[in-house]
Description:
By secondary structure, the protein is an alpha/beta fold. The protein has helices at 4-16, 27-30, 43-46, 49-52, 55-60, 62-78, 83-94, 108-112, 177-189, 207-214, 241-251, and strands at 20-24, 99-102, 117-119, 122-129, 136-138, 164-168, 192-196, 218-223, 235-238. A six-stranded parallel sheet has the order 3-2-1-7-8-9, sandwiched between helices. Strands 5-4-6 form a three-stranded antiparallel sheet, covered by helices on one side. Helix 8 (108-112) links the parallel strand 2 and strand 3. Helix 1 (4-16) packs across helix 11 and helix 9 (177-189) packs parallel to helix 10 (207-214). The longest helix has 17 residues, at 62-78. The protein is elongated and about 60 Å long. It starts with a helix and ends with a helix. The structure holds 2'-O-acetyl adenosine-5-diphosphoribose. 2'-O-acetyl adenosine-5-diphosphoribose binds at residues 25-27, 30-31, 36-39, 42, 53, 103, 121, 169, 197-199, 201-202, 222-225, 227, 240-241.
Amino acid sequence: xxxxxxxxxxxxxxxxxxxxxxxxxxxxxxxxxxxxxxxxxxxxxxxxxxxxxxxxxxxxxxxxxxxxxxxxxxxxxxxxxxxxxxxxxxxxxxxxxxxxxxxxxxxxxxxxxxxxxxxxxxxxxxxxxxxxxxxxxxxxxxxxxxxxxxxxxxxxxxxxxxxxxxxxxxxxxxxxxxxxxxxxxxxxxxxxxxxxxxxxxxxxxxxxxxxxxxxxxxxxxxxxxxxxxxxxxxxxxxxxxxxxxxxxxxxx
Length: 252
Ligand code: OAD
């Protein structure tokens, strides 16, 4: 049930703002059928991150890590952007400076038509050299790229002789410095920040709303549940991102 009064209030705040941005997490893709990490059916309820999403796990068992990422790619390939992604893509037209900082690696914002997307945790469709020789390739469905060579275990190998890995941030790894620096700078200077479908637990990405609040921005949280950010947000809209974002768009 969308809270109409709260939506109208947010609509007024957004109408008056010039610099609007959003930060998104797994919850925005939940309605597209992409599992979240910490919800009742979340990935981290079924799998241990230390077995699948650390450089050590990849070093110890690259076949298991690739099996998991290939399974996730297959799920994401079947998914379609939902009305939440679609509404955010249209926000770029409404606010020429609108930018989107996402923790998601699924690429659904791009598929919805968003062009100014900062992917702070990487992209699951990109494969890169684990030794960082500089090789990187887009393996998204339909990408016009040559298939990468595989070793006798079926694992992709780099031109330099190293292993290839998904270009995502794993636990214990630093985020792409340029991406997170840009995300923080946007948070510092925005007037309104929409925080959509994230548990706001994982840093440094969870610092984006904290920076915005510290700099005096209005922070609007959109989430089906309360999070550690809820009590500090200026407005908390409780519900599905795929319903609330189009409603918000209609109120602007
Ligand atoms: P989480 O799984 O931690 O949180 C998803 C959030 O989305 C929760 O707060 C849910 O209540 C909310 N949610 C679920 N469905 C929703 C819907 N339809 N509409 C609105 N909200 C909804 O996912 P993230 O916060 O993205 O990191 O997790 C952050 C990081 O932890 C991920 O990027 C990943 C993970 O470990 C790495 O892989 C580095």
